[in-house]
Amino acid sequence: MDSKNASYRVLRTTEKVNVDGSLDEAAWAKALLLPELTLPWSRDEVQATECRFLWDDAYLYGAFRVWDGDVVTRTDPAHQGKMAVVDHDRVEMFFALDPELKEYYCFEIDPQGLVLDYRAHYHRKFDFGWKLAELRVATAMRQDGYVVELAIPFQSMKELGFPFSSSGFEWITGVYRADFSLLKTGELKMLWQAWVNPNVVEPDFHIPFSFGRFEFVNP
């Protein structure tokens, strides 16, 4: 899917969503499935990622069911604290205040629930000291992969300038996955999955063409 027609309807829910990594609430069965993530820069076989999203008065909820035969969480000693996520398998969500990415916010979450959150500006100017207040995350390991569940607080996002209305609104959004494999040499094989194909030669999520739109609807 390209950025010109990439949109996803986030349905409003009145049912309780427990952010516990189980994804067994009835609400998730009613959420729409995001179109399949693809590998824009590789011909490797895609390991599936199912992504669903819901919203209520307080949160945007996300559910990622990730299939992975080789979950990587080994950390380079040079990467401490939340920066350890850059070496790990993970799912990612970006939210932009404007189409040119003058200001956008990123959340990268590994299978163990470690979060790399940061503020960014085009092109690839990152403030890793930034942190989103009240972000909720839960993960669970599965025999064939892992689950990431999260809740992004609307109050914190509104304070950053993102729109919100009980009747519906839109956000500029990117959804991604880093699918790593640990080679015998000790190096990482890095495969990059994206909801929107940015149609550029080199892998890069941090460009306007890698974003689509989330339409928050109140059916």
Main sheet, how many strands, which sense, barrel?
12 strands, mixed
| Total number of distinct structural domains | 1
Number of helices, where a helix is a run of at least 4 consecutive DSSP H or I residues:
2
Question: Class, according to the CATH hierarchy?
Answer: Mainly Beta
Shape: globular
Structural class, from helix and strand content? mainly beta
Distance between the termini: 25 Å
CATH architecture: Sandwich
Helix content: under 10%
CATH topology: Immunoglobulin-like
The fraction of residues assigned to DSSP E strands is 35-45%
Extended strand count: 12
Based on the model shown, name its key terms:
219 residues, mainly beta, Immunoglobulin-like, twelve-stranded mixed beta sheet, 5% helix
